[in-house]
Write a structure and sequence with these properties.
Elements (H helix, E strand, L loop, with lengths): L3 H6 L6 E4 L1 H5 L8 H12 L3 E5 L19 E4 L4 E4 L5 E5 L4 H14 L4 E6 L2 E4 L17 H5 L10 E7 L5 H12 L4 E4 L5 E5 L5 H11 L7 E5 L5 H6 L2 E4 L5 H6 L2 E2 L7 H11 L5
Helix pairs in contact: 3-10, 4-6
Length: 285
């Protein structure tokens, strides 16, 4: 009988590397180390595509835009958008959260977790409620209630909603996620990537994994030919889907449980460490 360990060793050679950014590819100071830059470039030269798969919006991709090679594409906003970084962040595909669904989610969370404040991430930028902490101040943002931000005078005419963000000042982050999923998980996809009680809410079925699967299918790449990296709950579906997956040394416990392997933390170039082993032919889970 073939052992699970032997089965992994017999897996197809990797054709695509999918990596999260914050807490994974990026160091804590948001830099990409010279070692990591070299590893990404070497993987591309070896014919292995590299996809950045992140919760970040397209406008925050400048940290890695110089390191996207041939295809130029990145998956942003937890799978809600595929963007072309070669063209400065042009949206190639959008998987939006319907505004009527977002309004239902807002109502459900206001009841289940009083004190929740919201922000709305559109293809055109972010807008937020007065009590929502603007982690990255956007001078072009509108400040108003979520209900007003999501209102459309003419249905379908406004910019697509990439994700709804919900923040709570007091709740434990994992408890907030569990509460939100219980209250409105039938309406939308809930996850989190922040160490604070900040939830990221996407359209039904939208995740890093589902959009990555679509991109891979377009290229004839199977899940078994993908190596994925991540550190937070918004990476869990992607790590579970990929044939090989690595939780960072600094990963959330649920991420460690979902991944097939583990590497060192982001400040020790954990992604580069595995890529170097792939290229050397010494990858062994």
């Amino acid at each position: 009988m073939t052992s699970p360990h032997s089965a992994r060793r017999a897996a197809p050679a990797p054709r695509l590397i999918a990596t999260d950014l914050d807490g994974t590819l990026l160091r804590d100071d948001k830099s990409v180390s010279e070692r990591t830059v070299a590893a990404l470039a070497a993987a591309e030269r070896a014919g292995i595509e590299v996809f950045f798969v992140t919760g970040r919006p397209a406008r925050w991709m400048d940290v890695v835009s110089d390191h996207v090679h041939g295809h130029g594409l990145a998956i942003c906003a937890n799978g809600a958008a595929v963007v072309d970084l070669h063209s400065g962040g042009t949206f190639m595909e959008v998987r939006p959260l319907p505004r009527d669904v977002a309004l239902d989610v807002v109502a459900a969370l206001r009841e289940a977790a009083p004190g929740t404040s919201f922000a709305v991430e559109l293809t055109t930028g972010i807008h937020y409620e007065p009590l929502y902490p603007p982690f990255f101040l956007d001078p072009g943002a509108t400040v108003a209630s979520a209900e007003k931000l999501l209102f459309e005078e003419e249905p379908g005419a406004a910019a697509p909603v990439l994700k709804l963000l919900a923040q709570h000042p007091d709740l434990d982050p994992d408890a907030f996620l569990a509460t939100a999923r219980a209250a409105a998980g039938h309406l939308a996809s809930f996850t989190r990537s922040s160490p604070t009680a900040l939830l990221e809410i996407s359209g039904p079925g939208v995740s890093k994994a589902s959009t990555l699967a679509l991109c891979c299918a377009e290229r004839g790449i199977s899940a078994e030919e993908v190596v994925a990296f991540g550190d937070m709950p918004n990476d869990i579906e992607m790590l579970s889907w990929a044939g090989r997956s690595y939780a960072m040394g600094n990963a959330h416990p649920d991420v460690v449980a979902a991944a097939s392997g583990r590497t060192v933390d982001n400040n020790e170039d954990g992604v580069a460490t595995v890529i170097e082993r792939i290229l050397a032919g010494t990858l062994d889970d």
